[in-house]
Design goal:
Layout lengths: L2 H5 L8 H10 L8 H13 L1 H9 L8 H13 L5 H8 L4 H6 L1 H4 L5 H12 L2 H17 L5 H16 L5 H12 L6 H13 L5 H6 L6 H14 L2 H7 L9 H9 L4 H9 L7 H14 L5 H8 L10 H12 L6 H25 L24
C-alpha cells in the first residue's frame, strides 16, 4: 500500500489531530489528486473549525474547475477575516479555468488580470518572453520580495516550459552563470523552477549542493524542485546534507516528502546526533511522514532517548502515525492529550496576540504551531 492509499481514508477525518497531520504531510507533496483538494475545500465550507487549517495547507495543490467553483462559493459566505484565504487560492487558478469561469471571477479580477490571462493562453513566444523579462526586471529592482511578481513570473514560466520555448541548453547556461555568483538572482531562482517544470534530472546533484546556501527563497525552490522528482536519485543526492548543520532542515523536508524505497533505507540507516534535539526532532517527523511500519523499530529506539517538540509538532506526528497504521501504542492517549493541551494554550495566546496585534517575522516559527516558518504557513 503506497502513501496515498494509506492516507486517503483519513483526509476528511473527524479526529482533528489526525486531519491536521494529514494536511501537513501533503502540503508540499506534489502528487495530491485534484479530487481530494475539491473534497477538502467542500469540507472547509461546511466546517468553520476546519476551514483555516484546510485552506492554508492546500495552496500548492492543483485546482480543478470544481475546486474553483467551491472556492467562489466559500468566498461569498466567508467571514471578513477569512476572505484573504479564499482570495489567495483563487490567485492560483490556471488561465483556461479562469476564462471558463470568467463571469464568476470578474468581480475579483481587474482588466489587467484578464489581459494577463489572455496573454498566457494566446500569447506568442516573443510576447511571453517579453513579459517574463519585464517581470524579472521588476523583481530584481525591488528592495523586498514581492510575492505577486514572483507568482506572475512562475505563471509565465509554466507557459514557456509547456510550449517548449525554453531548452535544457538555456537552463545550463543560466545555472553555470549563477553558480559563479555569491547570491542567486531572481533569474537564477526561477531557473530552478524551470528545471522542476522540465524534469531536468541531470541537475539533481547540483540542486542538492545548493542546500548549504543561506538563501531562503532559493532553498524553497530547490526543495520544491527536488521533491517534485519523487526519485531515489534525489534521496541519494541529499543524504550527505542530512547531517550538515547548514543544510539538515531543508534536507529532511525533502526526505520526508519523497516517498520512495530509498527514503526508507536512508531513514533506517541514518546515524543521527542524539544530542542535537532539532536533528532528532526532524528525524522523527520524517519517519512519521513516511507512514511506513518498517520504520517503527528505528522510531522506538529514537523515542527512548527522549525528544523535543519545538521545530515540529512531535506529539501530533506520533499520535497520527500510530493511529493511521492501526498500532495501539501505550503512549497514544498521552500524546493526544498533549496535542489538545497545546491547542488550548495556543488559542489563548492567539486571542491575546489578536488584541495586541500579532507581530511575527517572515522567518520566525509560525504562531499556529505547525513547525514551518510563518511565511510558509499562516503568513503565506
Amino acid at each position: 500500500m503506497n502513501f496515498l492509499d494509506k492516507i486517503e481514508p483519513f483526509i476528511l477525518s473527524d479526529d482533528p489531530i489526525v486531519q491536521e497531520y494529514i494536511l501537513h504531510t501533503f502540503r508540499d507533496y506534489p502528487d495530491v489528486p485534484e479530487q481530494w483538494t475539491e473534497k477538502l475545500i467542500n469540507e472547509a465550507l461546511h466546517s468553520k473549525e476546519k476551514e483555516t487549517n484546510i485552506l492554508i495547507n492546500i495552496e500548492n495543490h492543483n485546482l480543478s474547475e470544481g475546486a474553483v467553483q467551491a472556492l467562489l462559493k466559500g468566498l461569498k459566505n466567508a467571514d471578513r477575516n477569512k476572505v484573504h484565504l479564499f482570495a489567495q487560492l483563487l490567485n492560483h487558478v490556471e488561465p483556461d479555468i479562469a476564462m471558463k469561469l470568467k463571469d464568476e471571477l470578474t468581480p475579483l479580477a481587474n482588466k489587467e488580470a484578464w489581459s494577463f490571462y489572455e496573454l498566457l493562453l494566446n500569447g506568442s513566444e516573443e510576447e511571453i518572453w517579453e513579459e517574463y523579462g519585464a517581470t524579472l526586471g521588476e523583481l530584481e529592482d525591488s528592495t523586498d520580495f514581492v510575492p505577486y511578481l514572483f507568482t506572475k513570473a512562475k505563471k509565465l514560466a509554466r507557459v514557456l516550459a509547456r510550449k517548449g520555448w525554453i531548452t535544457e541548453d538555456e537552463l545550463d547556461i543560466v545555472m553555470n552563470e549563477q553558480l559563479e555568483r555569491e547570491w542567486f538572482s531572481y533569474e537564477g531562482i526561477l531557473n530552478i523552477y524551470f528545471i522542476q517544470l522540465l524534469k531536468g534530472k541531470k541537475h539533481i546533484p547540483t540542486l542538492a549542493s545548493l542546500l548549504v546556501r543561506d538563501e531562503d527563497i532559493l532553498l524553497e525552490e530547490v526543495s520544491d524542485a527536488l521533491i517534485s522528482f519523487q526519485s531515489d536519485e534525489v534521496v541519494q543526492a541529499i543524504s550527505p546534507y542530512l547531517t550538515k548543520k547548514e543544510s539538515f532542515i531543508f534536507a529532511f523536508s525533502i526526505l520526508e516528502n519523497t516517498k520512495t524505497p530509498s527514503a526508507i533505507e536512508v531513514l533506517r540507516d541514518l546515524q543521527i546526533d542524539q544530542k542535537n534535539e532539532d536533528h532528532k526532532e526532524l528525524y522523527i517527523q520524517s519517519i512519521c511522514y513516511q507512514l511506513n511500519p518498517d520504520l517503527i523499530p528505528e522510531l522506538e529506539r529514537t523515542l527512548q532517548q527522549g525528544y523535543s517538540s519545538f521545530l515540529t509538532d512531535t506529539e501530533r506526528n506520533l499520535y497520527s502515525f500510530y493511529t493511521i497504521l492501526g498500532e495501539n501504542h501505550p503512549q497514544l492517549q498521552r500524546w493526544g492529550q498533549v496535542v489538545q493541551e497545546k491547542e488550548l494554550h495556543f488559542q489563548k495566546q492567539l486571542q491575546k496576540m489578536n488584541v495586541a496585534g500579532p507581530k511575527v517575522g517572515r522567518n520566525e516559527p509560525c504562531i499556529c504551531g505547525s513547525g514551518k516558518k510563518y511565511k510558509k504557513c499562516c503568513g503565506a
